[in-house]
Amino acid sequence: MVYEVIKKGGIAVLIDPDSTPVEDAKRIIEKAKGVAGIILVGGSTLWNAEFDEYMRELKEASSIPLVIFPGYSLQVSRHADAILFLSLLSGRNPQFLIGEQVRAAPLIKRVNLEAIPTAYLLIDGGKITSAEFMSNTKPIPRDKPDIAVAHAITAELMGMKCVYMDAGSGAFYPVPDEMIEEVKKNISLPLFVGGGLKTPQDVERKRKCGADWVVIGTAIEEDEDFLLALRDIV
Ligand code: 1GP
Question: What is the atom index within ligand 1 of the atom nearest the CA of 170?
Answer without folding.
Answer: 8
